[in-house]
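the two lines:
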Amino acid sequence: MKSKQIVLASRPQGLPSSENFRFEERETGKLNDNEVLLKTWYISVDPYMRGRMNDIKSYAASFQLDQPFSGGVVATVIESRSSSFVESDTVFGMLPWATYCIEKAENLRKVDIQSAPPSYYLGILGMPGLTAYFGMTEIGKPKAGETVVISGAAGAVGIVAGQIAGIKGSRVVGIAGSDEKCKLLKEQFGFDEAINYKTAKAMSKVIADVCPKGVDVYYDNVGGEITDAVLDNLNFHSRIALCGQISLYNSTEIPMGPRVFPKLLTKSALVQGFIVGNYSERFGEAFAYLTQWINEGKMKYTETIIQGFNKLPDAFIALFSGKNQGKMLIETE
Amino acid sequence: MKSKQIVLASRPQGLPSSENFRFEERETGKLNDNEVLLKTWYISVDPYMRGRMNDIKSYAASFQLDQPFSGGVVATVIESRSSSFVESDTVFGMLPWATYCIEKAENLRKVDIQSAPPSYYLGILGMPGLTAYFGMTEIGKPKAGETVVISGAAGAVGIVAGQIAGIKGSRVVGIAGSDEKCKLLKEQFGFDEAINYKTAKAMSKVIADVCPKGVDVYYDNVGGEITDAVLDNLNFHSRIALCGQISLYNSTEIPMGPRVFPKLLTKSALVQGFIVGNYSERFGEAFAYLTQWINEGKMKYTETIIQGFNKLPDAFIALFSGKNQGKMLIETE
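prediction for all of em together
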């Protein structure tokens, strides 16, 4: 079977560009026992993948030059030599950016497309949703009446994290990059307040105004100056779920800023960096709660779905200018 | 009774100087029911007091202009109108920097000078010892075989924190400001390694060399560039007990440095700011362990005792150039 794929052509300096990506054609090869042939349906693009484009050891292995990108994919089984899957099954896996591929059955998980749209398994019922769940419930631990601030609030993780804080009875303040996103957060996702950081004059003051009782929980997807401003408003015994730092991922020099340890010290604040894999033994619990909240109508969801495998590099790059609302993904045609 | 006292003459910019302190004489006044008249014996000087010299709201109330400094004091009862204390009792209290004072009995705690020298109640059996205990056992949680790094290791808190990590079976690395202190840490206090940050060329590399398995626990008393270097060497799931930032206390501008959140994120690291008061319900437990370790010979201790009430301002200022080994305190003559 002929397949298109996208490989890492070169490592980016700063913001990735189309030159870092190369389209190729290859043969999927021959199907062996316990393998399935897959047709890709949805492909996830996520901010953390930027780190994998560097040649630096981190929690996720680096992409290799001239080798395909990979990440969360929902695909359809078109031929099976595994007893676990039959033709037309829908599966989730960490798979190459390719239109077709062969994969071992043991690396795939069947997903139920009757109870939720298939794309949800890359978002609210996938890595971003689980990330939001554990970061908010295990680190943020918002209580009723507390103030919770979320940066990158209109992104795939942010919209879920904010709604979980709302379900726990907290007052929820989102920070996002456009008036349209702020409107969405308040009208669709039940955020109590939303701040457009691109038009706010003095973020520290704006946050103080919007959070007159201070900030008890900060769910940080963004880092940098937005985070500096939130840290100016921390309450005693506040908790910071350190989930992402997208504003810094394309830095070409070591990012500098005001030192934060003195602020954390005087507030007896907690910061916990995390990745969703730290909680892998409890994915079932998170999945059950998220599904229940969706079914009860307590949890809303939105996606930015771009059509066409060829748009993958552009969709990924667009994450860093905040062109997505909610989860960004590609539907192959 | 005539008493000498020291009041805040002016608020310092940067490092405090003798001009910020003023000696006065006053009458202690008349003893009422449930009060005792005290003769000061030992007075504690602690880095955190620098923050109290600023007019900024923090966890400890600011000193007021023209009012006495105050802090941990061990004193002798010379007259009592309380049923709780008799003449010649030794007590601990948060008391003014004065040679004599009158205090309500309810604010004092009797200390046992048979089982430990009276000065210990300002150090290993006082605030610094309890701080080390809770920061290390509740936040650092060192395990056998892990690597624990302590900045300000030869200070009042550092020497206790390091020995607790050693008792827990960890490999203990201290950072201090002279070869003499480093020698002391290794020979007297059982540290496995000690780094003199004043002569080390490239701290990040030196720490990497001394900690070939990386850093699992960092007990931070210092902040700034030393902390930057330690953070370059964190292990996955490392814990940082954020106890002090003495290198920054005299900053006259907002201290800048490399952003630390990206480092914490990629290592799933924990940072917990704290003050000893957060654990006040468990002081008895800490006191019992520290006493036991001292009696078993597992815990050594050292003090820098300066003679004379008049030396108090100099002793306090000397903290910031690291002139002390272990706990710094004044013995009034």
